[in-house]
Amino acid sequence: MRVLFTTWASPSHLFPMVPLAWAFQAAGHEVRVAVPPNCTAHVSGAGLTPVAVGPAPEVAPAVGSGRIKVWHAQKPWPADWPLHLDQLDEDRIALLDMLTDRQCAVAEKMVPDLLAYARHFKPDLIVRDAGTYAGAVVAEVLGIPLASHQWGSPAVLDCEHTSPGGPARPGYRALFERFGAEPDAGTGVFVDPCPPSLRLPTPATRLNTRIVSYNGPGELPDWLREEPTAPRVCITWGVTAGKFDPKSALPAPLQQAAHSLAAAGLEVVLAVTAAQRELIGEQPAGIRAVSMLPLNLLLPSCSAIVHQGGGGTATTATGAGVPQLVLSPRPEQMLTGDRLARAGAARHIPFNELADDEAAGQRVHKDVLGLVEDPAHRAAALRLREESLAQPSPAEVVEQLVDLTR
Questions:
Q1: Is 67 in a helix, a strand, or coil?
Q2: Residue 143: CB partners within 8 Å, gap ≥ 6?
Q3: The pLDDT of residue 357 is above 80
Q4: Are the CB atoms for 308 and 318 separated by under 8 Å?
């Protein structure tokens, strides 16, 4: 069988799909991964075959460029907001419209190349990252079965529809019509690594899969071959913030907490980008700054992790059974933090709450100590890990998807 994977961004939207692509390849199927040119090296680095389609997308394309940063600095949204899109105020609906239009602009540039390659490759199945509209358009145009791959979110973030399974937003409908197709209803098949107890309900069909974390290629350093002599805490802030402001280091509350935690005798690992590592400079004893170290190698040795609530980071930590402190700037990250906190496996602070708090670093410090010292958090995190391990493997999901194409 021929399987065409596709995503619009690298690497956070690519990496969650890699284990399923491996499973298809290991089962003897022919796999290609269609991505923008800036993502091909990440595909090759994962041992898969890339196909470049469309131009490299800008971080903030012209559509909504003035408001995209606003999405990354939100005050708290209502609990479980994806279930209640019709109850959001006008400003929040406008943000969702902007995000949809932004993704439509990216997809419109990808579709011609993706459509041409699909006609050449003749896939039996398209597997798209759930936020890649181009894959959905090509599947509709050519009548190819489609599966959408989640990246760990508790919700199917179906922002392109006005309600779960409801009418398409105007920009999304126009994208499909531009290529002679009707938009899907948002109720297709979703491959979902999020543990079932964390999820919000959806009319879409979910194929459960266990968490098999891939965070990019990397080597195991010597210091990770030994047991830590003190509780080890990972602090990370992802890569997206650095794309908006390449001169930004870790947020001040995280840097302050790192220093105070190290002074309290904990071992702190700052998992940062190469640019962030240069900006933060030399660190005192007890703090190790690393870049290009995959989190799936680091987190099994950690007692806690502090992060922004990104799907890849949260999923990797959940799969490792590590308690989490989520400091969420964006609405979907707030949702992740809320759901993990309700499960007892995390503590959650919307990041905006720390902006004007002079004691923000102390607050982060206190919550990290709470995660490390309260065994209930570790027990809850391990329950989620066991729940994930009980789900079908990527190899079993391959069999389910093969049946779907039949």
A1: coil
A2: none
A3: yes
A4: no
